[in-house]
Amino acid sequence: MILKGKVWKFGDDINTDVIYPGKHLAIFEPEEMAKHCFETIYPDFLKKLKKGDIIVAGKYFGCGSSREQAATCLKYAGIGCIIAESFARIYYRNAINQGLPILVCPGISKKIEQGHTIEVDIASGSIKNLTTGEKIQASRLPEFILGIISDGGLIPYVKKKLKRNV
Amino acid sequence: MTIAEKILARASNKKRVRCGEIVNAKVDIAMSHENAGLVSKNFKKIGVKKVWDSKKIIILFDHRVPAESEKTASGQKAVREFIKEQMIRYFYDMRAGICHQILPEKGHIRPGELVVGTDSHTTTHGSFGAFATGIGATEMACVWATGELWLKVPETFKIEISGKFKRWVMSKDLILHIIGKLRADGADYKAIEFYGETIEHMSIASRMTMCNLTMEMGAKAAIIPPDEKTLNYVSSRTELPFTPVYADEDARYEKVYRFDVDGLEPQIACPHKVDNVKIVSEVEGIRIDQALLGSCTNGRLEDMEIAAKILEGKQIPMSVRLLVIPASREVYLEAMKKGYIETFIKAGALVLNPGCGPCLGAHQGLLASGERCISSTNRNFQGRMGSADSEIYLASPAVVAASAIRGEITDPRRM
Q1: Do strands B22-26 and B148-152 pair parallel, antiparallel, or not at all (unpaired)?
Q2: Do B63 and A88 touch (CB under 8 A)?
Q3: Do the Cβ atoms of A80 and A106 come closer than 8 Å?
Q4: Domain annotation for chain A: domains and CATH numbers
Q5: CA gyration radius, chain A
Q6: Interchain pair A28, B41: CB under 8 A
Q7: Of B259, B282, B314, which closes a domain?
Q8: Best mutation target, B138, B380, B392, to test chain A (most A CBs within 10 A)
Q9: Per-residue confidence of chain A (166 residues) as pLDDT tens digits?
Q10: Do B38 and A28 touch (CB under 8 A)?
Q11: CA angle, corner A73, sides to A68 and A78, nearest 5?
């Protein structure tokens, strides 16, 4: 899976309340969730977001609540993948389970800036900054996680698995 | 092996597991609150007709009770229908309290078991010797369908606590102090085991506060080895058998930390991060608009007791709103019998129904732009409790009560 997109750059410790405010947790429709990403603190995000854009963040992206809406909303808003120095544990799982590609890449914040265009090979973890020409290597995802992502998330993955077991 | 390794080995039917290994673990208890609506929606997509075990799924409402909007009301209604259809045995609707208080109160938490919940503060239940961790709604749907979940076996940090708390200093101050030192991601992906005389002397409630807040340094699970106190509490509430699990003498810990509480002063997490921890005396005098006593972190009887002691016979100024939210009906009734509720009402507090209250920013006391709240809850993220231009300070129930009386952040030792 090769993705190309413009970068939205965020700092360290971006928490789930900032990504998806608690007041919208009663919403269960992914398209509706997508209308509220980052709305409290970064109201410009949704106005300027284009389908396929990529988030590059500092350490501990997605810390806080277990709300998976914080991953779902970004996927349905059109974010192609998220690359961060590190992720909070539950967010990492939630993104994978939603089929939203996610890569850990220590040092990425220093190599990519807001508005750069990058190309990401999800399977190998190789990233190319098309604006500067620099190549960056992210940690490779384990095989079975790649399997979940390529199936489109945990639900289709488990469905397939259950079918095999029958 | 550590406690975490032993529980995950047992749950995945293996003799030994190693850190970093991914296991397919059988879940003992699966808890969801309002987000059971999202879980059931995902469950239906899997195509399995019946949940794997209708006695192992626990559901209740606590995040928005009573429903604050038509949307929430419809969501809760759909969950009730699903529960009926699936004949899920343990459903408490909105008649119990906050999930992390209710699970142990109603006897669903047992040492040595694997507990998952669609709520990050599920780590609370490690205080009873369980491996308890928060998961997302989609993976919970798969747990409902299969009873299993993939988990990476975490490395374990050993944290040893010594010393005796000074008067008005609580376990909340200790865990805030630890988070301040280890930082918000200091235990990301890790299991924690707590040891030491201070933990041994701690009440069940204070231990729950410790394990609850380890989530704010990223912990996957935080476990207190079960002692007599734990076993008495658990046995008095469950009829099911259980096997406590303890670490081997040669268990390997990635890191060992030691803290002493002898000189520990009241602590406070300043905006907008839980690891922005200071000593209360450093920020004394900052004006507050709201004080919140409650939540899965600090809404238990001992929290009500210490606040009532401070508020007894006092009046809260009109410039401050004090919200009191007991963590459960059981806590509420006990607090009423002991006269704490009367003390709160006479002091000018608003006593609300058991639930999460405004902690997550859904209802019941949100903050306007420029307002400041001192709170016994667990997160002070920007905008969490309302306006992006409001501020949340996290502290112990004693600090919250003392601050409510003065209308400004106050060290309870001065009262």
Answers
A1: antiparallel
A2: no
A3: no
A4: 2-165 (3.20.19.10)
A5: 15
A6: yes
A7: B259
A8: B138
A9: 999 999 999 999 999 999 999 999 999 999 999 999 999 999 999 999 999 999 999 999 999 999 999 999 999 999 999 999 999 999 999 999 999 999 999 999 999 999 999 999 999 999 999 999 999 999 999 998 999 999 999 999 999 988 887 6
A10: yes
A11: 135
Q: Residue B404's pLDDT band (boundaries 50, 70, 90)?
A: very high
Cα(B334)–Cα(B324) distance, rounded to whole angstroms? Answer: 14
ipTM of the complex in this document: 0.95
Q: Which amino acid is at B360?
A: L
On the 0-12 / 13-18 / 19+ scale of CB atoms within 10 A, B131 is: buried
Let me know whether B245 and B298 are in one domain: no
Indicate which CATH number applies to the domain containing B105. 3.30.499.10
**Cα dihedral A74→A75→A80→A82 (10° resolution):** 50
Picking from A114, A112, A113, A20, the residue whose alpha carbon sits closest to that of residue A63 is A20
Angstrom CA distances, A49 to A21, A53, A69, stand at: 18, 7, 18
CB of A87 closer than 8 Å to CB of A60: yes
- pLDDT digit string, tens, across residues B345-360: 999 999 999 999 999 9
Mean pLDDT for B40-64 is 97
Nearest to B260 by CA among B157, B161, B158: B161
Shared-domain flag, residues B36 and B157: yes
Give pLDDT, residue A164. 84
